[in-house]
Amino acid sequence: xxxxxxxxxxxxxxxxxxxxxxxxxxxxxxxxxxxxxxxxxxxxxxxxxxxxxxxxxxxxxxxxxxxxxxxxxxxxxxxxxxxxxxxxxxxxxxxxxxxxxxxxxxxxxxxxxxxx
Length: 116
What we know:
mainly beta, about 120 residues, globular, about 0% helix, 5-stranded antiparallel beta sheet
């Protein structure tokens, strides 16, 4: 049974940085077809923040450059670094991963709150 366990959320001031961690239990993060982070703000739909396919570099930046997703293979984790936090980044952040031939898996989420 695969389990994704997020951590690292909290209350941070605007302009700060944060690193979220997603521990992968019961599977190998290196072999995941794709790993991703999503977020859901109150009253809004869940949206994709950043994703990383298997065959490529072990890290990637989002379009606006404030989010960096990476695979920590030795620790078997997926990380999300967030820079220059804004109040509109306040949301529950979810880790997602898919392995070939299986359904995708979701973590329970970690709350990020950015104060202005």
